Amino acid sequence: MLPRPSQEPLVAPSPLPPLPRRSASPNPARSFSTVAEPFSLESLQQRIAGEAGAKEDARCILEALAQSVGISILRLKESCRCLSEGAGEGWLLRRVWQFCDEVQDQLQVARAPGKSATAATFATLAASLASVQKRHAALSKEVDRQTERNEELTLQVTAAADAEGRLQAVLASQQEMVLGEESSAQGRGYIDQVAFQLKRQQAAKERELEVCFKELYDRTRAACRAEQDALQSKLRSIQQDLAATRVETSRLRSQQAAVSIHTRQCLDGGKAALATLGGTVSARFSQVGDEARTKAAKAEDVLHRLQMQLASSKEAAACELESMGRRGLALKVEAEAMSDKAAEETAQLATELSAVETQRSMISRNLSDEAGALVSALRDGFAQGASLQVEVGELRAEVERLEAELRAVAQERHLLQEEHRDASERQQQAEEALRKALGDNEVVRQQMEAQRVEMQSASEVALLEVDSTAAAALHAALEVAQADLDELEELLDALEKELAENRARCSQLHLQEASLQRDKVSLERERSMWRAQEDLARSLESEVQDALKDARKSWAEEVQSLKDQIREATRAKELLEAQVQDAQAAEPLQAEAAQVMEARRKAQLLESQIDEVQALHAPVQKALERQATASASAQMEVEQQRLQTLQASRTMRMELEQFSAQREQDRAALNAELAFERERMLRAQASWGPNHALILLEL
């Protein structure tokens, strides 16, 4: 006797647990850059986990169906055993018992690892074909209950998917609450790990940016210090030149005072000598009168020669003055060379400023290029999302086609069941006829038995063929659906990576904006420094102008005093010449030559003194001209630097204004594009919810 099967009711697989309800946010208008991207990662992970759970639930449902088929077969065997105990001849029941054993063996083979889908399909078909006689209605009711439970499960999954879609639209601004209400410790650990990696990458990038900013700041500061040191060295050199000029002026003034004292002493000595000479001349005037008259012509010749010598000395002095003028021109050329050198230095500073401006323009262009790349990446991501929706639609159409094929297979199964029912009825009729004719004719019974066996084998072969074809079709459809799901998972992974990259780019853009703000502050600091240098240059210019005025005033006074001295020396010379002429006319011929020689010697002495005065006057004039030239060149250089500083400050101010306006425009455009892409992402997420639910339902 077979063991009595347990009377426990069949246990249907439990439906999928409902998705956790998340609290809705009162403020759905949060920033997209801080909420939407982490939520998309979490939603994708939840969808992948939901798909795995749906697969596991489908496997459990198929196992439950196989278990219910086994229980039904056991009950059928029990009923056959009960009937066989009360019947005389149970060969038909033995055949049914044998058929049930074969079905159980096939189910055990189908439950082997690696044949889950085919075993489930075969179990379903075998259960529907093995539901004969009394247990057919019970098995049909059980299948109906399973169908109703599956429909309830489908409705629950659809409702959960709809709720998930609504929650995705509402919970876009509740990242912190979502992270706080996470029930899975593994999910929290993964999110913390991702956040830690992102923070570490962001910290590394911040350190790199800080290092670059420090290097740029150090280079800019070194360049500014070099420029400041160069300007300070130039100012020190100018101040040193002014101090040297003042020292030279004081030295020339002291030399001029010494020369004037010496000249006065010489003039006083000459006056005393002339007075003594006048006394002697007046005493001997009567004696040398005749001799002077005779030698007047000779004296006139001598005076004429002296005048010629004086003219030649004046021409030599004029030549020396011309040479001094040429030297002054050479000094002017040197001053021009120095001004050219200063212009070259200012040009070098201008090139350095232009290099800084080009670097800043390159940074702005890189910022605009990265913003464009970010926008293009977002557009590509949403284009891929649209293509993913198209692929989901195609997958839905494929699932509908598979449903149609399944319905056709179900219709064929129903037809086969009807044929089997008809065959079983005919078989029962034949068995009754065989029972009646069994005692009359054993040969007829054997023929009928052979016909029955042939019909049964033919029906079994047909059922096996239909079962194999249906199992192959279902297996192929499941493989195609699995491949589509794998592709969908790959696309979702790619979208997650793109979202992470876009988030990193957004953080980079924020960091670049902060660095540009710091550059703006440093440029404003440099502008204030340039203003201070401009004020210093103005004060130095005023000091140089005051010193130049004082030098010109002292120069005019010294020139006037020298002119007065030359005028007095000329008058003394004329007086001496008149006295010499009177003495030559009065003295005798013997003393006339000595007097003429003495007068010539005194005249030469006076001319030498005049030459010395002019020689002393020439370096003073040269030094004053050099000082005036240096002051003029310094004033021109200071004026040029002031103009360049003003131009640089104006240019810098205009560029800062343009840069701020361009940054505001770029920020507005980027915010508009991000808002548009955020709306598209929300619409895509809202559309993905029901589609994802339908895919789970079909699986």
TrEMBL record:
Residues 21-30 have a biased composition (Low complexity). Residues 129-156, 385-436, 471-512, 545-616 form a coiled coil. Residues 1-32 are annotated as: Disordered. This is Uncharacterized protein. Keywords: Coiled coil. It comes from the Eukaryota. It comes from Symbiodinium natans.
